[in-house]
Amino acid sequence: MSQDRRGGGRRSKLGRSGGGIAQLPWQSVKNPYPPMQMLDEERMEQLHKTSMRILSELGIRVMSERVMDLFAKAGAIVDRESNTIRIDESIVTEALRKAPSSFTLTSRNPDKQVEFGGNSLVFGLVAGPPNVHDRVNGRRPGNLPDYQNFIRLAHHFNAIHIIGNQVVAPIELPANSRHLDTYYANLTLSDLSFHCTAIGRARAMDGINMMAIARGISVEEMRASPGVTTIISINSPRLFDDAMAEGLIAMAEHGQPVTVTPFTLMGAMTPVTLAAALCQQNAEALFGVTLTQLVNPGTPVMYGAFTSNVDMKSGAPAFGTPENAKANIIAGQLARRYNLPYRTSNANASNVVDLQAAYETEMATWGAVLGGANLIYHAAGWLEGGLTASYEKLVLDVEILQNMMEFLRPLPFQEDDLGFEAIKSVPAGGHFFGAEHTMSRYTTAFYQPMLSNWQNHGAWQEAGGKDALERATELWQQALHDYEEPVIDPAIREELDAYVARRREEIAANPEA
Amino acid sequence: MSQDRRGGGRRSKLGRSGGGIAQLPWQSVKNPYPPMQMLDEERMEQLHKTSMRILSELGIRVMSERVMDLFAKAGAIVDRESNTIRIDESIVTEALRKAPSSFTLTSRNPDKQVEFGGNSLVFGLVAGPPNVHDRVNGRRPGNLPDYQNFIRLAHHFNAIHIIGNQVVAPIELPANSRHLDTYYANLTLSDLSFHCTAIGRARAMDGINMMAIARGISVEEMRASPGVTTIISINSPRLFDDAMAEGLIAMAEHGQPVTVTPFTLMGAMTPVTLAAALCQQNAEALFGVTLTQLVNPGTPVMYGAFTSNVDMKSGAPAFGTPENAKANIIAGQLARRYNLPYRTSNANASNVVDLQAAYETEMATWGAVLGGANLIYHAAGWLEGGLTASYEKLVLDVEILQNMMEFLRPLPFQEDDLGFEAIKSVPAGGHFFGAEHTMSRYTTAFYQPMLSNWQNHGAWQEAGGKDALERATELWQQALHDYEEPVIDPAIREELDAYVARRREEIAANPEA
Question: Which residues form a coiled coil (chains A, B) (predicted)?
Answer without folding.
Answer: none
